[in-house]
Design goal:
Layout: H1 10-33, H2 43-65, H3 71-89, H4 92-104, H5 108-147, H6 167-173
Length: 174
């Protein structure tokens, strides 16, 4: 069976477009609600980027394990909520512009600190999102197994809590 190209799927364009519009509106509203400080920290942009990192990493990790959700539905949710909403919410270009403007404005130390904090916190919250998603997926899998009358899952479970590497992290390494 040949796999169809996502570029020829108009439904994917629609969910990404709608998700992107939603994410962009949320980012704009966060920018209005959380103004930048005089010290060069743009907390609206930082909040939007961190939220997007957490949600997208968590969503991707959860959907990668959610074999109980139909593949087409997983694809649409991943593209619409992940790529669309989180992509519209996060903004590398604004982060770069704010850092560059700070450097040109004579606040190089503060601007570089802002950029460093943004990247480090982004990685940390993405990791937290993956860990939360792993716990949710493991719980969901256990509920489904118990409901099916199988108290133990005899299959290999890569999200086992004794394994320090999550299944999403394992996939990222491959």
């Amino acid at each position: 069976m040949t796999k169809r190209s996502p570029l020829s799927d108009p439904q994917l364009y629609v969910v990404v477009f709608i998700g992107g519009a939603i994410g962009t509106c949320v980012r704009y509203l966060l920018g209005l609600a959380i103004p930048a400080t005089a010290g060069g920290f743009h907390f609206g942009t930082l909040s939007a980027n961190l939220l997007a990192c957490f949600v997208y990493a968590g969503l991707s990790a959860y959907l990668a394990q959610a074999d109980w959700i139909r593949p087409r539905k997983r694809e649409l949710v991943n593209r619409g909520a992940g790529m669309g909403v989180c992509g519209g919410l996060s903004t590398m270009s604004t982060l770069a512009l704010e850092g560059f403007t700070g450097i040109l404005g004579g606040q190089a130390g503060q601007a570089l600190l802002y950029l460093l904090v943004s990247v480090v916190l982004g990685l940390l919250v993405a990791f937290a999102g993956v860990r939360c998603a792993d716990r949710l997926a493991t719980g969901h899998r256990a509920e489904r197994t118990a409901a099916a009358g199988n108290p133990g899952d005899s299959g290999s479970d890569s999200s086992d809590s004794s394994n320090p590497v999550s299944s999403a992290e394992q996939e990222a390494r491959q």
